TrEMBL record:
Stated family: Belongs to the glutaredoxin family.
Cross-referenced Gene3D superfamilies: Glutaredoxin
Protein name: Glutaredoxin-like protein
Annotated source species: Pseudoneurospora amorphoporcata
Domain of life (superkingdom): Eukaryota
Keyword annotations from UniProtKB, A to Z: Electron transport, Transport
Keyword Electron transport: yes
């Protein structure tokens, strides 16, 4: 992702990527997100669920990574207690699926 060229711009969508080190599916998911970014930049946040400060996310997604939450960029930060309401994709997803979820969020 080429963050520097878009550094001072705001984006309509934010993607929060929940992952863990050593996860092959997470590597594939990051590649998909990079391809989406090239077509349609978005605000990006990454959460390593293994870190101690991410325990609540690990409790939710320990066996489900990779997971992405898609929200409006101006929405509050992700909250584990509200994860059931999040617009999300899990495990394997395509560029088209991510963009469709971005469209859904931006139109709501």
């Amino acid at each position: 992702m080429r963050v520097t060229s878009w550094l001072f711009q705001s984006f309509p969508s934010r993607i929060t990527f929940f992952r863990r080190e050593g996860c092959g599916l997470c590597v594939q998911a990051r590649s998909v997100l990079s391809d989406v970014w090239d077509r349609r930049p978005f605000e990006y946040k990454e959460v390593d669920i293994v870190k101690p400060e991410s325990k609540a996310w690990r409790d939710l997604y320990d066996f489900d990574v990779p997971v992405i939450h898609i929200s409006k960029a101006q929405a509050p930060e992700e909250d584990p207690k509200l994860s059931s309401k999040a617009v999300k994709l899990m495990h394997r997803f395509t560029i088209e699926q991510v963009e469709a979820k971005m469209d859904q969020v931006e139109k709501s």
